């Protein structure tokens, strides 16, 4: 049986790429959520003053 090719989805590079993409996605989502929560809190505080 032939070894895993670079485009087979089972190579080490493909695994690293998937893990990296997932990690970046989680980090981006966490940062985005923190920013949105901060903005929402700021808007609520501003609305309470007005």
How is this structure best described in words?
- The chain has about 50 residues and is mainly alpha-helical.
- The protein has a domain at about 25-50.
- Helices cover about 75% and strands about 0% of the residues.
- The mean pLDDT is about 85.
- This is ATP synthase subunit e, mitochondrial.
- It comes from Marchantia polymorpha (Common liverwort).
- Keywords: Membrane, Transmembrane, Transmembrane helix.
Average pLDDT, rounded to a whole number, is: 85
Instruction: Determine the structural class based on helices, strands and strand pairing.
Output: mainly alpha
- Major beta-sheet overview: none
Please tell me what the overall shape is: rod-shaped
Radius of gyration: 21 Å
- What is the first-to-last residue Cα distance? 72 Å
H-E string: H
Low-confidence stretches: none
Report helical residue fraction.
over 70%
Count of extended strands = 0
Q: With helices defined by DSSP (H or I, 4 residues minimum), what is the helix count?
A: 1
Strand composition percent: under 5%
Keywords: Membrane, Transmembrane, Transmembrane helix
Transmembrane segments: 12-35
Protein name: ATP synthase subunit e, mitochondrial
Organism: Marchantia polymorpha (Common liverwort)
Give the topology.
Blueprint lengths: L11 H38 L1
Task: Considering the chains and any ligands shown, give keywords for the structure.
76% helix, 50 residues
Short overview:
This protein is mostly helical.
């Amino acid at each position: 049986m032939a070894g895993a090719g670079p485009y087979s989805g089972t190579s080490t590079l493909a695994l690293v790429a998937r893990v990296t993409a997932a990690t970046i996605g989680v980090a981006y989502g966490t940062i985005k959520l923190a920013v949105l929560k901060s903005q929402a809190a700021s808007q609520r505080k501003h609305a309470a003053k007005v």
